[in-house]
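Hey, weird one. I pasted the Corrinoid adenosyltransferase sequence into the form twice and got a warning about non-standard characters only the second time. First submission, copied straight from the form history:
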Amino acid sequence: MNRVPFSSPKGTVARLIGAARLDDKGFAVHFGRMTTANDEQTRHKAKMANRKAIQDAEVAAKTVEKGLLIVHTGKGKGKSTAAFGLMLRALGRGFRCGVVQFGKGAWQSGERTAIERFGDQVEWHTLGEGFTWETQDRQRDVEAARRAWAATRKLMADPTIRLIVLDELNITLRYDHLDVTEVVSALQARRNDLHIVVTGRNAKPEMIDAADLVTEMTPVKHHFAAGVKAQEGIEF
């Protein structure tokens, strides 16, 4: 199908749509109907109206409202970043939120500095003692995990908290610092208006099965492999 500009006798720009051949003088001769820009706009509008009707019907069919268990996992960068972005949205809607960091050390990250500006709208607990390869002490890691889980249960029992980020909980469960059955059962028994976001690679199958939403971050390219170090404002 060929589309070429065509000037009608009245000067309107149109298009000829159809087959074409060359006449004996080398000029293109087109066979087909002529459509105007107005025709194309009419078709586009009808197509979008049909699409909107389908979308509206699909949205209207969704009637359930509930607290979600959301899991961010995978080997790619951005799991915690996405969780804190979601928290920012919730804070913007006036929610009280909580954070429990399981595996990361007690350094002051950029997101913590920013979110703490919301004052008592956020309750933040950093109870990990660093990555497992830094502590090199399994019993210390288990004890830190238990303290973090106790803080989690306290936040879950607070009726004013509407969203909780459990940062690196998946790593804690991967190394069996907590019992996965106990943790997942408690998360499933959350209040109906409480959203919980769990981050960390290697999410356990039990966590994935229990979740309402699971996103896997897939690495495609990372600057660290090219020798670029972790940078303020990007990694922390």
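That's the output from the first submission. The warning seems to come from a hidden character in my clipboard, not from the data itself. The chain is about 40% helix and 25% strand.
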